[in-house]
């Protein structure tokens, strides 16, 4: 059985290779950054706020996030903390998945999170 920290390292290696994904609905690339990975882990102020099972669920959905960014149509937006957060939804293996991205001050879209809509 793989220890959690080892699993985190393996997933980080895979995640870090993504770099960016072109999202036709945005007519722009979405960058996969360290901030997005830390958000998947649930890190806020150097403390984990997600339990391991939830983190593992989100890890499994990284491939779904890539597929949805490549195929989703119109993003929905909402303002939060002076940043515009967008979410794109799509079905992946018969599950409704939501991908959260944000646009930074430089105008670049960045991946923030992915989860199943229940």
What does this protein structure show overall?
36% of the residues lie in helices and 37% in strands. With 118 residues, the protein is α+β, with helices and mostly antiparallel strands. The strands form 2 sheets. A 6-stranded mixed beta sheet has the order 1-2-8-7-6-5, with helices on both faces. A two-stranded antiparallel ribbon has the order 3-4. The longest helix is centred in the N-terminal third of the chain and has 15 residues, at 4-18.
Task: Looking at this protein, list some descriptive labels.
36% helix, two-stranded antiparallel ribbon, 4 helices, six-stranded mixed beta sheet, alpha+beta, single chain, 118 residues
Topology summary:
Layout: H1 4-18, E1 20-23, E2 28-31, H2 34-41, E3 43-44, E4 47-48, H3 52-60, H4 62-71, E5 76-80, E6 83-92, E7 95-103, E8 109-116
Parallel strand pairs: 2-8
Antiparallel strand pairs: 1-2, 3-4, 5-6, 6-7, 7-8
Main pleated-sheet profile: 6 strands, mixed
Overall mean confidence score, pLDDT: 89
Query: What are the segments in which pLDDT stays under 50 over at least 5 consecutive residues?
Result: none
Q: How much is the radius of gyration in Å?
A: 14 Å
Instruction: Please identify the structural class as seen in this structure.
Output: alpha+beta
Major sheet strand order? 1-2-8-7-6-5
- The string of secondary-structure elements, in order, is HEEHEEHHEEEE
Number of strand segments:
8
The rounded distance between the terminal residues' Cα atoms is 29 Å
What is the count of DSSP helices, taking H or I runs of 4+ residues?
4
Helical amount: 25-40%
What proportion of the residues form beta strands (DSSP E)? Answer: 35-45%
Name the shape in a single word: globular
């Amino acid at each position: 059985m793989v220890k959690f920290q080892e699993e985190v390292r393996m997933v980080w290696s895979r995640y870090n290779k993504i770099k960016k994904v072109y999202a036709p609905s945005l007519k722009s690339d979405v960058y996969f950054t360290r901030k997005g990975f830390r958000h998947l882990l649930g890190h806020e102020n150097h403390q984990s706020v997600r339990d391991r099972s939830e983190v593992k669920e989100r890890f499994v959905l990284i491939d779904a996030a890539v597929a949805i960014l490549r195929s989703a149509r119109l993003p929905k937006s909402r303002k939060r903390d002076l940043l515009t957060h967008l979410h794109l939804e799509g079905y992946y293996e018969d599950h409704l998945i939501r991908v959260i991205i944000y646009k930074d001050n430089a105008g670049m879209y960045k991946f923030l999170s992915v989860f199943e809509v229940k």
